[in-house]
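Submission sheet (multi-component)
Chains listed below:
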Amino acid sequence: MSFLLTDIPRILPEILLLVLALLILGSDVFERWAADEQAALERHRASASLAALGLGMIFAITLLQSGYLYTVPDTADSNYFTNLLRNLQSGIPRGSNVPLPVMDMFATDHLTIIGRLLFTGAAFLIVLLTYDNPPLRNPGEFYSLLVLSTLGMCLMAGATELIMLFLAIELTSIPLYVLAGYFRNDRQSVEAGMKYFLYGAFSSALLLYGMSFVYGYASSTAVAADLTALPTSVITSFDTLRELIAQAGEPAPILLIGMLFMIAGIGYKIAIVPFHGWSPDVYQGAPTTMTAFISTASKAAGFFLLLRVLDTVFPNVVGNPIPVFDEFGGWTGMLALLAALTLIIANLAALPQTNAKRLLAYSGIAHAGFLLMGVIAQAAPFSTDRLNGVVALLYYLVVYAVMNIGAFGVIAIVAQDTGSDEITALNGLAQRNLGLAALFTVFVFALAGIPPLAGFFAKFYIMLAVWQANAIWLVVIALISTIPALYYYLRLLRAVFMMPPDISTPMPAPRWMMASLVVSAVLVLVLGLFPAPLLDVLEQVQVQVIAGR
Amino acid sequence: MFPYLSLILWLPALGALALLATPREQHQTARSIALAVSLLTFVISLALPLRFNAADPSMQFVEQVAWIPQWGISYHLGLDGLSLWLVVLTTFLIPIALFATWNSIHAQVRYFQILMLLLETAMIGVFIALDTILFYLFWEFTLIPMAFMIGIWGSGNRIYAARKFFLYTFAGSVLMLMGIIGLSFLHRDATGAELTSFSLTQIMGDIRTGAFALEFGMEQLLFGLFFIAFAIKVPMWPFHTWLPDAHVQAPTAGSVILAGVLLKLGTYGLIRFNLSLFPNASEWAAPAIGILAVIGIIYGAWIAFAQTDMKKLVAYSSVSHMGFIVLGIFALNEIGITGAVLQMVNHGLSTGALFLIVGYIYERRHTREMSEFGGLWTVMPIYGGLALVMVLSSVGLPGLNGFIGEFAIMQGAFISPALGWGYVAVSVIGVVLAAVYLLRMYRETFMGEVNKPENAELKDLSGGEIGMMVALLVPIVVIGLFPTLFFAPMQASISEVAQAFRSVVAEGQ
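Outcome: structure written.
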């Protein structure tokens, strides 16, 4: 399918993100470039506020366009506003009527829309967190890279074609490599950037390798297949691949190997055991705000992609996570093993950590284990249960993003004041700044899954969904793994509340950083106490296979 | 209908919010607001027994609103004879505990009051939640304020105690969460419903009508998951090791609430969940649990006898007394359960009072070692007199509250086919030991000559302290003399639990 003019509103958020990135880069030229602090601060503030405003507006436009707040009814009178909104909403799915992907490579279904909202929202909160930082070198580059990476994530969420998938991943990752190593004079930051880059390149290679196997398998069967029955003529598109794989009958080993490589490649991006080796070092070394971004938005984008690839390309090797030898298998079986490993190893490895960022890195890996369980729920026999799995996964991703951004945000404020991100730097925070300590408590308890915060419900839904897929053993492991997890989360809180501070002067909390944290904390509370509206939105997601299998 | 339960539940939480708005340094204002809010809650909660229909065994004051319809979770509250007195006990003890902190908590006063009020909301919530997830939310939320109370305002080894308390109970509740999820899915599969239901009343109703019958093996498993969670909270031997640590390190008000109400969450859960949902497994496990309870009775008493620290002594006496309550519950008949519920209230009153008594002397001398005292009666006669009554109430002297509860429990255990006279014979030793260790404590501290010069100058109780003691004394005497007043509202609900229990078990055989 070729590109149509009417496709433009469908990819409007992506277009706007690109424009914003170029705008930030270009507007930096008009600032006063001088060596004094004042000029540097002005430049930083200008770029940061432009990025924040832009991301906020793109978030608002995407929200309006999504129709989750309000959809223009067909009977509404035509006036300037209804026409504008109607045009904006023309490309989005309505009811069961989901438009075909743009040029067969980019779907604009609910999954993509939710992804856009999540990524731009997270990027917005991150930009707020960076606003009060000491001025960055070349802020224009910094913020435009961040926006470009956000654009890549949106593309990852919507990619329905192998080339698009790869480009989206690279567009997300390459800016992040630079951002992780942005403090050029800080050895740890440079090490983080380099490590992230090497691991990232390796994982991209794995992914490409897997893609080539899958493509090769599909295209060689395509000769024999009935080409007219294919959904599109693009062989690399997910729908076509699925059809071809289905027509070829029993999946051959080469296809499974390709799938394994693809899972491994994406596994690096989402940092699950055994592909997690880079993440503690990178999380510890990267600028704290960028750690927050990498650990939330980038990971979430990986899960969007994983879900879509596995569900639309490999539905007939979904397999089973039940631990009976002749039933166990497929990608759900494999992911179940990885999830169990991730939960156990990450939670144990987090116990002895003394660096707060590193501890949160391991906690992030453990959360990836929980998130994987949402994908495993796709093995459930009933389509409602499979949908519940997707809803649980998306809910978890949203909640995880806000609570992790919040936790890293507090660490960023503390590190800015004390110059250290060790757990001991948190000592006596409650006496130095109680508001900040209270916010941190909310985030840490949410991460630990203490009700009634959203983190608890996220875990709870995921476990319900996996139980429906009959992987009760995994639920048991997940539940038990929360006990050591609580232990290390409590170490953070012990430092905050029960240790005496090194210095007792009040800790300053910059205004915009606090704003970002307060928004996150409110979300953690509200999403926990009143999850029904968000769940209603998430339930509209129709991943193709869930509807069709 | 007027939403009494929601009002009582959320009023303390609103008070905590209001406290956030008070200035940080005005300790007196914070104390007054917290006390006023908790007293108001208590006064409103008095409407519950007055408006309670004692003849109706089902849930009363029910409120139900869909909360997360996608998963079948609702905001569902209700009260029956089982929970009535426990709610009133909670609203009664909180103002007393708050008043007890008036002169003993000086650091971060406002936050202590906030935590106390949040804890009140959570504890009331546990007693009135009729949705299993709602129950779990409140259950878990009781941990946070209590752990902070121990960890921030505690003494000595407070951080260790707080962490142990938190991790122990959290580990238990994780198992319970597994049980809750499993129960609801099995219920969904058995009834063929589209949505999972987490409504306790619905699941319980389906079990009683036979629409939802569990396989025996699965029933045992679920029973075990819930039982461990509750047994840790009670705490039953051998899950009790967190309790002495937590009690010794906790501030006085924390100990009063911990012993007075928090431990009752466990025994309440045993009746509400284990007995009502898993009758067959309960009958199967009753002898074993009875043995654990008896071991707890004797062991707690034995260890209490060896203590030299008064607070530790009272803490171990709790292990012993809670053993009685569990024994009454697993007698599996009306009289035993009724006695157990009454004994929960009794234990809350008398042990709360004992912790206050230890707290008073600790505030004056900053030590709790019995060897440091002696002859206090001559120095502080009012204190001595009130302490004697409280000790006797805890010992179980006829005419005071403890006797009634223990008597009913033993009677229940004696006639129970699951337990029998052997259990009673051993547990009677516990009663004797209780008299021994408590009276020994009394003798060493209050009787004899004033043998330390520091003690000769001690001031007797102030008006406020006497007020608190008298407030506790009134229900202690009233329960002792007119137990039927308290038995009457429980009767209908508990008979229903016991009858449903018998019918389900009879059907299973």
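Remark: The two ends of chain A are 25 Å apart (CA to CA).
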